[in-house]
Amino acid sequence: MIKAILTGHSKGLGLGIARALLKRGHAVLGISRSQNTELQQQYNEDLQQISLDLTQPSALEQLESSTQLRKFIASATQLLLINNAGLVSPIGPLNAQANGDISRSVQLNIAVPLALSALLAREVQGNQQLRILHVSSGAAQSAYPGWSVYCATKAALDMHARAVQEDQLPNVAICSLAPGVIDTAMQTQIRETDESLFPNKQRFIQLKNSNSLSSPESSGERLVQYLLSPNFGRLAVDDLRAY
Asked: Catalytic amino acids?
C-alpha cells in the first residue's frame, strides 16, 4: 500500500499534489496550518489532515510524538514524503531582512524537511520503502537579488538530497526536485513586491501576462508521476521542466 505524507497540502502546488495522489487511490496525510474541507469531503476515507503551523519550532516536537503520524506510517508498504511547504519571504536585500522572517523561512524551508525526512527514515521497518521528495526551485542553482534567504534554503535541500543519497540506505530514495514556475499565491506575492526589494519582479509579471505559468493541478500531476516512476532517486537533484 502506497501512502503519502505531504506538507502544505491545503492550497497551491500542495493541493495539486494531494489531488493527484488521492485520485490514484493513495492515502494522504496532509500537514498544514489550514485544512481543506472540500478535499476532505471528496476523499473522506483516504485523506487525513493535521492542522499545524510548521513555522513554529514546537511543530517538530508535536510531529515526533504524533500517534496519528505513526499509525499512518505503520500500514504502508511504500511511504512517500513530499516536503512541499515553503516560504519565499523575506524578500529584499540583506539590510531589509527581519530576523523573525529569516527564522520562519529557515524553520519551514530547511528544518522541517530535514527533520521529517530523518523521522520517517527512523520509523520505516522491514520491507517498507521510503521515497523523499523535496520541492526545490531553480533558485537553488541561481542567485537572485532580494532572494538570498530563499536561494540559500532551497540550495540546502539540494545538498541534503545529495548527501542522503551518499548514505546509500537500502530502503530510502530521495530527490530534490525543482517543479518550475507555478501559478500560486507565492507568485502573486512576488509580483506584488516592491521592485526596490526584488529587482527581477518584471520577469515574473511577464511570465504571468504571457500565460507561461504552469497550473498547480498539472504541476502536481507531473510531480506525482515523477515520484512514482521506477527511476525515482536515480538523480539526487533534478528539474521537472526537463521532462
From this structure: 150
